[in-house]
Amino acid sequence: MSHAPEPDLDAAALRAALASSQLEASELRSELEETNRGVVALYAELDIQAEQLRRATELKSRFLAYMSYEFRTPVNAIRSITRLLTDHVDGPLTAEQERQVGFIESTTAEFAEMIDDLLDLAKIEAGRVEISPAWFEMVDLFSALHGMFRPVVVNPATSLIFEEPRELPRIFSDNRKLSQILRNFISNALKFTPQGEVRVSATLLADDHVRFSVADTGIGIAAEHHAAVFDDFSQVDSPLQKRLRGTGLGLSLSQQLAKLLGGQVSMQSEFGKGSTFSVTLPIRLGRVNTN
Ligand SMILES: Nc1ncnc2c1ncn2[C@@H]1O[C@H](COP(=O)(O)OP(=O)(O)OP(=O)(O)O)[C@@H](O)[C@H]1O
Ligand SMILES: [Mg+2]
After folding, report:
1. Are residues 229 and 261 in the same domain?
2. 81 Cα–ligand 1 center, Å
3. Which residues have CB atoms below 5 A from the ion given as ligand 2?
């Protein structure tokens, strides 16, 4: 005997199933709508926070720029007065006074350097740095740097060597900014190399880039500090660091400058053996990027 169809029962079950799935769908829809509203609210909040962050960064840059600019006048005044004293304009100084004035002079020079670094960083952050690219020869850049550092190398145990940049093409970039990066690298290398050598070189890479390197045989940097050396105000804790002054801005500034020149900085270092800091730049700076 075959089962007779039970149309009424089937239709009722179908209706019930439909109703329940409709209910489910509408619950799902309202859940989705709620989630959507949540996402929209989160986006709005993110927008507000991004705007606040942008304004905070802008204020910080402006504050840095004003502050460092305002500091220049009094610092220059101190330097001029110190020069009057060291030039004996108002009569000779005793040996002790000479020593003390010398101390004021070197501290003020450091302070002035720090102000300049802060001002440069603030300008870069505010996107107000002018890049003036031009063609130049690397030999000229190296010989200018050599001249600049000749009077600075006072430690006879450390030699500063510039490898002749052979067979390198002319490069189209901002040579003052490149020189600023290399000066930062070289002065660090000299500072952290009590004895040995600091070697400056340039290599042509395959993809129309040039790498400038400053390699030293100094104290080196332990691996755990590698990630932080390019950060603002970062200094590695070491006995030598404690004796030497600095603000920890040099490398962060170099990194920013390299980016402006379409390149990048890098570092290799082994604790106790030495460090190599490099900047890689395109031979020809393309679109001028001011932030
Ligand atoms: N060639 C190097 N050898 C060993 N340590 C280095 C070398 N270059 C940099 N460092 C470490 O990285 C830190 C950051 O360098 P950076 O140039 O930014 O600051 P600084 O030299 O201390 O101060 P500033 O350059 O602002 O006067 C240094 O304090 C030092 O600890
Ligand atoms: Mg430095």
Report:
1. yes
2. 31
3. 188, 250
Residue 204 amino acid letter: L
Q: How far is the CA of 104 from the centre of ligand 2 (A)?
A: 21
167 & 277 share domain: yes
What pLDDT, in 10s, does the model give residues 195-232?
999 999 999 998 899 999 999 999 999 998 888 888 87
**141 and 98 together in one domain:** no
pLDDT range class, residue 241, cuts 50, 70, 90:
low
Is-contact 142 212, C-beta < 8 A? Answer: no
Q: Locate 291 and state its tokens.
A: 């932030």
Residue 174 Cβ inside 6 Å of ligand 1? The answer reads no
Atom of ligand 1 nearest to the CA of 235: 29
**Residue 289 included in any domain:** no
Least confident of 142-156, 159-173, 180-194, 273-287: 142-156
Please indicate, yes or no, whether residues 161 and 272 belong to a single structural domain of this protein. yes
Cα separation, 155 vs 119, whole angstroms: 30
Q: From ligand 1's centre to the CA of 49, what distance in Å?
A: 34
- Check the CA dihedral 63-64-68-69 and report its sign: negative
Same domain, 175 and 120: no
Record the pTM: 0.72
Residues 102, 31, single domain; the answer is yes
Under 8 Å between Cβ of 173 and 279: no
Listing DSSP states for 240-264 in one string gives: HHHHS---S-HHHHHHHHHHHTT-E
Clarify whether residues 152 and 278 are in a common domain: yes
Does 121 lie in the same domain as 148? no
The total domain count for the chain is: 2
Residue with tokens 């606040």: 52
Query: Do 159 and 190 meet the contact criterion of CB atoms below 8 Å apart?
Result: no
pLDDT tens-place string over residues 20-33: 999 999 999 999 99
